[in-house]
Specification:
- The protein is of the alpha+beta class.
- Among the domains are: 136 residues, no CATH class; 81 residues, no CATH class.
- 26% of the residues lie in helices and 29% in strands.
- Strands 4-3-8-11-12-1-13 form a seven-stranded mixed beta sheet. A six-stranded antiparallel beta sheet has the order 7-6-5-2-9-10, with no helix packed on it. Strands 16-18-17 form a three-stranded antiparallel beta sheet.
- Helix 3 packs across helix 4 and helix 3 packs across helix 10.
- The longest helix is centred in the N-terminal third of the chain and has 17 residues.
- Bound molecules: zinc ion (ZN) (2 copies).
Length: 391
């Protein structure tokens, strides 16, 4: 009986995770080396199973403590009582509303802020650390992603946009972590997913529900890559300005909605000596010539450029951005005493959706469809599985 029970759950778990596109397997705490972890049921109950079958049920308020040992196995206790040592544990929620609080401890004993998650779990030892995979329906996963990526204080219309973008990203990247046996990680590498926020989330929940299953595709019904950044500085960037690849989906366009928002402008001072030495060391830029020094100190970008000064010097602006930790590549330079003043516009790569511009459009009464078609030119809406609605 137990074995049958287990097999049904096992098959369900893997079917759901690997074949049904509506369900995701997400690695959580992916940036942490977890040595031990406490799992406390906050709502409902969970069934605990090992590869050999049913082990136990944990109810509301009860907890499991898992610790990895030197032979790469997981030592399990329930409410302080030893239960055994296992390679992998599965936790299945009894109803889809049940959720659990995960409190990990790292190998170096630092504590990590606990997070709460819905869905099922597969927990295993991996190179002497504990790996936690969360099996979750896409629409529930999005609640966590939206709270993590956009915060919990935006308008519903804005969450509709972010839901479609994040859903499209998930659909476009289902195979990103195939080698490791899951779909997505919870870090910025994929999309931030720091738990299912359990507070009042009416706007997020409604934004997701009202766009249920919608994704962006191009005119040939091919998935549209959905990039976004905080503020484009008034002009969107093209992908080859920022990365070494050219995506025809993105053609630079003007954005007047974000130019007076919070992160529209920035300034940074860099010492002239440091600035010149960087250019000379990395790009053979001849700083002995006064006219070259002048060009470096008096660089203007009224429209987005790809290279500093002139393409012939071969100095990509993205290199300056990463070296000097600048908010964007969209900046101009002027000399101020022994320093160079960089006056910049925007925050982030500037490709795709401009979050602050989109929020401003929402304030001015534009609909999510109008905003998406403003930032993702040539894109249209479709269903996760089937092409459905268009605009
Ligand atoms: Zn990832
Ligand atoms: Zn913008």
């Amino acid at each position: 009986m137990k074995v049958t029970n287990y097999l049904i759950s096992f098959l369900f778990f893997f079917n759901v995770c690997h074949h049904d596109a509506q369900n995701l397997l997400v690695q959580v705490f992916s940036q942490k080396k977890i040595h031990s972890i406490e799992l406390e049921v906050v709502l409902g109950s969970y069934q605990v199973q090992s590869a050999d079958g049913f082990l136990s049920e944990i109810n509301e308020g009860q907890s499991l403590k898992l610790q990895v040992n030197s032979s790469n196995q997981i030592h399990v206790t329930k409410n302080g009582i030893f239960m055994g040592v296992y390679d992998t544990l599965f936790l299945f929620q009894s109803s889809h509303l049940d959720y659990i609080r995960l409190s990990p401890n790292l190998s170096n004993k630092t504590k990590v802020k606990p997070r709460e998650y819905e869905g099922d779990f597969e927990i295993s030892a991996f190179h002497s650390h504990i790996q936690v995979l969360n099996s979750i329906f896409v629409e529930s996963y999005l609640e966590g992603v939206l709270a993590s990526e956009a915060g919990v204080r935006c308008a519903k219309e804005y969450y509709k946009i972010q839901a479609i973008i994040s859903r499209t990203f998930a659909r476009n990247n289902l195979h990103k972590h195939d080698d490791a046996g899951f779909n997505l990680c919870d870090a910025v590498h994929c999309q931030a997913y720091y738990g299912n926020y359990q507070g009042e989330l009416t706007a997020i929940n409604e934004g997701i529900k009202e766009t249920n299953g919608l994704v962006l595709v191009d005119s040939n019904n091919v998935s549209f890559p959905t990039f976004f950044s905080a503020n484009c500085g008034g002009q969107s960037a093209e992908t080859d300005q920022i990365w070494n690849k050219s995506l025809p989906n993105y053609v630079s366009h003007e954005d007047t909605f974000c130019v007076h928002t919070r992160q529209a402008n920035w300034e940074v001072y860099i010492s002239k000596a440091k600035f010149l030495s960087y250019l000379s060391k990395n790009y053979y830029f001849d700083i002995s010539k006064p006219e070259q020094r002048d060009m470096a100190f008096n660089f203007t970008q009224n429209e987005r450029k790809t290279f500093f000064i002139h393409p012939s010097f071969g100095i990509p602006l993205r290199d300056l951005r990463s070296t000097f930790k600048l908010r964007s590549t969209f900046f101009s330079c002027e000399p101020v005493g022994d320093k160079v003043l960089l006056r910049g516009r925007g925050f982030g790569h500037g490709i795709g959706l401009c979050q602050e511009g989109a929020m401003e459009m929402v304030k001015r009464g534009y609909s999510y469809k109008e905003i998406l078609s403003f930032y993702f030119r040539g894109a249209r809406l479709s269903g996760w599985n089937n092409p459905i609605s268009h605009w």
